[in-house]
Design goal:
Elements: H1 2-19, E1 46-50, E2 54-57, E3 64-68, E4 71-72, E5 75-76, E6 79-85, E7 88-92, E8 101-105, E9 110-114, E10 117-122, E11 127-132, E12 135-141, E13 144-145, E14 154-157, E15 162-164, E16 167-175, E17 188-192, E18 203-205, E19 209-210, H2 213-219, E20 227-231
Parallel strand pairs: 10-20, 13-18, 17-19
Antiparallel strand pairs: 1-6, 1-9, 2-3, 4-5, 6-7, 7-8, 10-11, 11-12, 14-20, 15-16, 16-17
Amino acid sequence: MVLASVLLLSAEASRAGAARLPFATTHATNAALPADPAPFAVNDGTLLHPVVSATIRDRPAGRPVARLPARQLGNPTWVPVVERVPGWARVLLPARPNGSTGWIATGEHVRIARTTYLVRADVRERRLTLLRYGRPIGSWRVAVGAAETPTPVGRTFLLGSLRENGSLVLPTGAHSDTLHDYGGGPGTVALHGWPDPSVYGQAVSHGCLRVPDEALRALSRVPLGTLVLIHSGGIDA
């Protein structure tokens, strides 16, 4: 009876401790999150969704550092898995700093899925390419960040799908390195359209990727959590 009481108190303390952890969202900054060890690598398309808020650890069975909510930006939270060991998945996270990762236990409270898509963006060439099963299915000239507000490079992912003033906006898990807030938000880098097509092929944005309507229609079919690889230049379209 004493042992059962001790175990119950320990479980309650653990839950209370988890509840005090900060959420890893696009609005958060968490220096305790491990950095991405391979910021330009392609994953195998595996995605993870926490059915309920999931504890994020700094290593498998390690120190709790944050929680990943089941929903954010009005969408279910799906994140790409970039490394796995038995019982654990390392995922990319949408919090600052860019390239933040963490480990989540792959138990009954998470869903695992797989995407066949990959998004590549070449900042130097100012081109976005959509691939499926490793093959390009569309490639478009896009507008990228201006010199003073560059588009951050590295791997990130499609975090959400929003409608703003009737237009589709696809936030990613990355943030501007120079703007800590923009338009009332946290400086999240997004893929979105633009009314003036003359911007495509130019470095004129605040860090977002401005894409043609045709590209946006194709991207609207891509599952949330799909990897977005942003290169500084020289990738094959």
